[in-house]
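BUG-461 | component: ligand-complex export | severity: low

The export step for adenosine monophosphate jobs runs without errors, but we want the raw record kept on the ticket for reference. Input record follows.
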Amino acid sequence: MTQSDFSSLPLNSNLLKSVASLGYESMTAIQAQSLPHILAGQDVIGQGKTGSGKTAAFALGMLEKLEVERYCIQSLVLCPTRELADQVTKEIRKIARTTPNVKVLTLCGGVPLRSQSESLQKGAHIIVGTPGRVEDHLNKENLKLNFVSTLVLDEADRMLEMGFQPALDAIIDKVPRPRQTLLFSATYPDQIGAIAKRVMVKPVMVKVDSTHDSNSIRQHFYKVDDDAHRMTALRLLLLQHQPESALVFCNTKKDAQEVADRLSHYGFSAFALHGDLEQKDRDQILVRFSNKSISILVATDVAARGLDIDSLDAVINYHIARDSEVHIHRIGRTGRAGNKGVAHSLYSEKENHKVSLLGEYLDRSIGNDSLPSSSVLKESPVRPTMTCLQIDGGKKQKLRPGDILGALTGEYGIEGNQVGKIQIFDKRAYVGVHRDAAKAALKKLLEGKLKGRSFRVRMIS
Ligand code: AMP
């Protein structure tokens, strides 16, 4: 047994079984450093990047002390975005699989308050939500936090950046003391120090290196003359490298929309992701990007938070990020799970100051790599290999991935290896299908039945 074995921790056998069944062979750095304190009931500030395994760290802490037979809300997790809240809920449920009857409820905007109130009336042990929506439920007295003994502030820096401070204050005020407060944040600006001082008791600070292993991400920097050249440079990089999935970062919503529009105009499969989108459109774009029926997502930093997408082929910084930590965060999205990642960053004379700060931070000199030759501009952008089919039925109709896979690959159906990601929401389901098999797949779903009935199905790419 080594210090990074989960079995070195005072965890109950269900939880040890769970981490083993999930294939978590040893603790990540943030888990090894924080879990002993979390399990001892101390307040902990964890500073670490996305992908560090922080969710499992606080989930194990919460689940270890959860008293399942007491049917009341015992833990509250606050997250900046709905995507992150969904991701956190998923991870908690995964880890709780071996502990019977644990009820986790997500409370985020974008869905009617009423259906959430009904779920709240039925009770839950753990709430994961965004500050705005949690505050709404508190104000309506749908939600009582009297029995909460663990409070988690996840990606606290983003919550503050997004203006959630008043909502956070109002919520934290309602969580009784003594309690355990765990705060996770990728960066540690002064505001976080101030909030920690107000709401935590003698917190233990745990920091894991936020700089990526430079071997796992290749970084290229290109100097551009002006905005027109910047757009051309982006096209050159996309045409040359033909990524199946690429994330382009912009510093503003306006830029994100404009860049996505320009790329679409040039024939790329590109969509913008930013806070001004309707929830429905946002969900659909995320689904399509993750099932690879959209190849380029042009996003702001806030919108890209909590994106649960691994193995991106490339991250492109259309502008240099406003600070170096954000840059590290952005490029950390490529090269995940042992894949080698590539990050391309464009900068102009005006961004020289940010570039020199970034150079100091990364401890390397930032030069001017050569852009691909303009002859690639003659080529057409590659189309995504997958197409997305939308089925107008979901969890409410008890549809499961197996039903869809079965219907697609049954008699005279398409090959299993032509079916990609299947995602099921309350009233909708989406399935990625190889472009070559898309028509046959659509026909099969339209003519066949799912759970004994017909559903409306359409191709959305
Ligand atoms: P997070 O930083 O919480 O978003 O976690 C990143 C990913 O790492 C998630 O997909 C987890 O399921 C996974 N993970 C968490 N802890 C471990 C571990 N000890 N070993 C392997 N994978 C892990």
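Assignee comment: Attached the raw record above. Residues 6-207 form a domain with the Rossmann fold fold (CATH 3.40.50.300).
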